[in-house]
Design a protein that fits this description.
By secondary structure, the protein is α+β, with helices and mostly antiparallel strands. Helix content is 41%, strand content 27%. The protein is built from 14 helices and 22 strands. Strands 1, 2, 3, 6, 12 and 13 form a 6-stranded mixed beta sheet that branches. A 5-stranded mixed beta sheet has the order 16-15-14-21-22, with helices on both faces. Strand 14 and strand 15 form a beta hairpin. Helix 8 packs antiparallel against helix 9. The longest helix is centred in the first third of the chain and has 20 residues.
């Protein structure tokens, strides 16, 4: 039978800290993912970045240009004079102090900046799926980064809703991201299960306990099917920052000293290295003041070659390339007990050996927070680990062996499942949108 789209498209949007994805439910539990062009290929992951650049027309009038997603990164890397690259905006939605920012003399609210990305996601979905889109089921974490109270989370949701409104959406529903992942997993089942979902994004790690399966869908899902949620405001970005801090920064002089009269002091202020931990912050260091600090440090440093490497990194604006190398070594450590961090770009050539054991020691604090969140969810729900039929893990950090071991220790390796790690939330959101639209039309 020919499938038909509902009058209102059942669209799901996973607006993530690092990556976003879009999916359309097409009926019979099937979903079509939106794809985005990137360097002659296509990807279902849309980088959650915004690049703003000021260009002067021949008349002398300056105009602001903006790009989002893969195009934002390409324009940023190609620009000789860098504009303003902004990412991880989702991490600031719960902040009552970060209302907006000024870019080239113009004030933007946080909601306006987010809306630029959301608008492009909507327009791209309209072009690919061939229909106007004014409704979406949008994912949200259990707890937003920085949220300490329920009011903080509600404030973040309100801001996210406003961003979608500015982007042209007339109606938006929200669903917990781990619950959405459960919908994606449930679509593969021919029997009922009690499942624990672990959703690892760039900024948050979220967990949910749910009853899922064919009979749940048939009898109409109720609030009692969701046994509980928990979450913590850290994930893949925090792991990356640890690699930079423990592995890369020492090779660039973070532990080096310099002569100062009869004393030896740190060669370079610590705040400069803190800016390396998020790649888009590196461009903020290309100022006359910072370069003077570094050149002075280079003259007095006991290890001048490391300070010289840091100067090259900043002058050549290699933050994006550096963090791509961080991603590669993290991926290699997920497959092997040891790896070589290799960063060769511009005039830099760093080669540093690292073991999985080292990496796991660096992220011990983050791992304890994740364990506490899972155990709190089980305790609050009154569910014992042996009562959980399956554990479904999704998101990039679910590949990290020590993260997976947290679940294997509690539930057993045989009960762990994974799949579509980067798009399962968007898939589930589309299926959830289809369910809501169907129920509302009955």
């Amino acid at each position: 039978m020919q499938k038909t789209h509902p009058q209102v498209p059942a669209l799901g949007i996973d607006f993530g800290t690092t990556n976003s994805s879009v999916a359309l439910a097409t009926g019979d539990s099937e979903v079509q993912l939106a794809s985005f062009p990137v360097r002659g290929a296509e990807t279902s992951s849309f980088r959650s970045v915004l690049y703003l650049e000021r260009k002067k027309k021949t008349s002398g009038v300056q105009r602001m240009h903006s790009w989002t997603g893969p195009a934002a990164i390409e324009h940023y890397l190609e620009a000789e004079e860098k504009g303003r690259l902004i990412q991880s905006l989702k991490s600031y939605l719960s902040s009552t102090t970060l209302i907006g920012t000024e870019v080239f003399g113009r004030r933007y609210t946080l909601e306006e900046l987010v809306s630029k990305m959301v608008f492009d996601l909507r327009k791209h979905a309209e072009q690919q799926f061939g229909m106007p889109i004014r409704y979406a089921m949008v994912g949200r974490p259990v707890h937003f980064v920085g949220a300490e109270t329920e009011e903080d989370d509600l404030y973040a949701v309100t801001r996210l809703r406003e961003a979608f409104t500015i982007a042209g959406f007339e109606n938006v529903d929200f669903e917990m991201e781990p619950v959405a992942a459960a919908y994606a997993y449930e679509s593969t089942l021919d029997h009922d299960e009690l499942i624990l979902i672990g959703d690892f994004g760039g900024g948050t790690s979220d967990f949910s306990l749910l009853q899922v399966g064919p009979s749940v869908r048939r009898r109409v899902r109720t609030a009692r099917d969701l046994l509980g949620n928990s979450g913590v405001g850290l994930a893949g970005d925090a792991f990356d920052a640890r690699i930079v801090r423990k592995l890369v920064s020492p090779a660039l002089g973070s532990e080096s000293h310099a002569r100062s009269l009869n004393k030896t002091l740190p060669a370079v202020p610590a705040w400069i290295y803190a800016n390396l931990e998020r790649w888009h912050y590196l461009s903020f260091l290309r100022t006359r003041n910072v370069m003077e600090i570094l050149k002075s440090a280079h003259l007095r440093a006991l290890e001048p070659e490391k300070i010289e490497a840091l100067i090259s990194l900043i002058e050549e604006d290699l933050g994006y390339q550096l963090h791509q190398a961080v991603q590669r070594v993290k991926f290699e450590l997920s497959r092997s007990q040891s790896a070589e961090f290799h960063f060769c770009d511009g005039s830099m050539d760093l080669r540093i050996s690292v073991t999985r054991y080292d990496f796991e020691k660096w992220i011990e604090e983050e791992l304890r927070a994740i364990e506490h969140s899972i155990d709190s969810l089980l305790n609050a729900s009154g569910i014992r680990p042996r009562e959980v039929d399956r554990v479904f893990l999704t998101g990039g950090s679910s590949f990290v062996p020590i993260v997976r071991q947290i679940f294997a220790t509690r539930f057993g390796e045989d009960r762990i499942r994974s799949g579509n790690e980067f798009t399962s939330v968007a898939r589930g959101l589309a299926l959830r949108a289809e369910e809501v639209l169907r129920d509302s039309s009955n």
